[in-house]
Amino acid sequence: MRIGEIAALVGVSTRAVRHYHHVGLLPEPERRPNGYRAYTVRDAVQLARVRRLTELGLGLDEVRDVLADDAGRDLAEVLRELDADLARQEAELAERRRRLAVLLAAGPGDGEPVSPALAALLAKAPATDSPAAAKDREHLTLLDATGAAGEELYSVLGPLAADPAVLALYERLDELAGAAVDDPRIGPLAEAMVAAVPDEAFAAIPSDGPVIPGFGEALLAEYAPAQAEVVRRVMAAFTAEGRA
């Protein structure tokens, strides 16, 4: 094989091949009488291992150490290892495609990279222009990305997301955008929001404080004063031993 052929076979650039020669990760092959390098299957295996190790995040010095430890191994053993690694990558790719299919089927709306479980939950919610509902979705997306919320919580919130009465609660929260912090609507709305949450959801939420340090304060800062007071009371119920 010539340099362009081995590069295409392994999936790297010819520039990368030459660089690996330069730093000593890939031995220079013998040259034909015409001056071209003649690469073997062994060279391709070595180059594939270099690529795999660098894709795993190893630096070139670390790759060199790994390759030194593997020196002298039987070619068939190395090929079997590479085959097993390719099988693992195929399985990971299949799982990623499965997750993508769930997201596409759920139709989260704006293409947010959320988990399939959250995408399925959001798909149950009715379409709305409510700013409060949009904020709630953003907060769920953040918790989802950090792993602070999971399938158990999303499962019990399913009926809640599909309930039209919940949309009415969001709209009531929107109405408090310009209200004072002592507005008489604050208490009843907070109580209604807490009452709407299933007992199973409270059980699925940690009771020892915010799941992310500083998240509560940052969340409240996004709301107008009266709205923030409603949300604060709801959050207090979520983090208390039972309902507030």
UniProtKB/TrEMBL annotation:
CDD domains named in the record: HTH_MerR-like (cd00592)
Superkingdom, taxonomy of origin: Bacteria
Positions of the HTH merR-type domain: 1-69
Keywords carried by this UniProt record: Coiled coil, DNA-binding
Coiled coil: 72-106
This protein's record includes keyword Coiled coil: yes
PANTHER family assigned: HTH MERR-TYPE DOMAIN-CONTAINING PROTEIN, REDOX-CYCLING DRUG-SENSING TRANSCRIPTIONAL ACTIVATOR SOXR
Name of the protein this chain belongs to: MerR family transcriptional regulator
